[in-house]
């Protein structure tokens, strides 16, 4: 079912991008379309805090792709619901005949210090980021498993969106950091479980100017004053890596997390065992404390939490 009328690294592939009405998601959708993909542009059209809904953002991006000569369809359902996630996959298959790549990107912020964080704000942010990754991934995985069991070739890709907040923590973003850390764990599990069906799963931790970051990190995210200077925080800088990870060219790369910022791509190496001590028997609390203190002194200093005083 390869489309020979279009060229590019993703020619003939069908790609779903969630949260694609603005920011990073919009940049990803446009970049995939420019590389020949047929794109399902999903966006609920909610506000920065997740309130409300509008069909406009998804429709506008789909129309922009079509106006540029690409192929796209808008999808406005809430992918943090089973119904919305199921319809996302159904839209791809019924409209374009297949699904090859899922890019999970939807999210919003409700920042508060832990002592002020309301339970509703915790639930809402974890829901959109973590559940909003899990459900589209689950329905896409079921589709690809069925394809593999029917002896049809599967070269599927999933690109999840974590964050530096999920890798290092971020002051005032306990809900967001926890959800983004959960996405890393989900990525690792999905990569292991879905590899047998021809599905590769990776995650990115991007740094770019979006509605979510341009207020929280205003100075860092500002565009340069000089018109010809490289705009390191432009969301379009992240999309080339996402497009490659979503293409057949990324064969063999799975279960990885990449930081992407400006012109830099970094493979994150995650938790690895550091200094260790084994008594060969049960420790007393005092012994355990003495051993732990010595091991901490021997270990590498952790990366600083975003927003920490004197830190990132």
Automatic annotation (TrEMBL):
Entry similarity comment: Belongs to the short-chain dehydrogenases/reductases (SDR) family.
UniProt cross-references to InterPro entries, sorted A to Z: KR_dom (IPR057326), NAD(P)-bd_dom_sf (IPR036291), Peroxisomal_Beta-Oxidation (IPR051687), Sc_DH/Rdtase_CS (IPR020904), SDR_fam (IPR002347)
Ranges of residues in domain Ketoreductase: 13-207
Organism: Streptomyces agglomeratus
Lineage: Bacteria, Bacillati, Actinomycetota, Actinomycetes, Kitasatosporales
Keyword tRNA-binding: no
An MF annotation (GO) of this entry: oxidoreductase activity
Protein name (Swiss-Prot/TrEMBL): Short-chain dehydrogenase
Keywords: Oxidoreductase
Keyword Transit peptide: no
One Pfam entry name: adh_short
Origin: domain of life: Bacteria
